[in-house]
Every structure is written in structure tokens, then in C-alpha cells.
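Risk register update: the risk of archive-format incompatibility is retired. Evidence:
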Amino acid sequence: MREDIEAALEKIRPALQADGGDVELVDVTDGVVKVRLTGACGTCPMATMTLKSGVERILKEEVPEVKEVQAV
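Archived output:
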């Protein structure tokens, strides 16, 4: 499952990098994915929306085993 999540994150990365940020996979446990938003995304006031409406939505579409995405 980790490889599938990494592949899905590669699809998301260009959009985040265009805004000066990035996403890093930290851990996967029982369908809970922990990521770290870095660069401009780490301090952006819209980071929570990006995480839930963007990253989590896409990961759930690409990898059905994903239950939740959390920022760490």
C-alpha cells in the first residue's frame, strides 16, 4: 500500500511545488496516512484545506484502503 500512496503523491506533487510547497510521506498505519507539508505549504493558512480537500481526497480515490490523512 505504501508504494501506491507514494505513486498517488507523485501525481499531487507538481501542483504543490508550483506554489512553493511539497508533501512528504511520513508513515502509514492501518489505513491512516501521515504526511508532512513542507515549504510554503507548511506555513500556509490554507494548508488544512489543501490536506483534506486535495491530498486526502486524491489518496482515497487512488488507494481505497486509505481511511484518513493526517498532517504531522
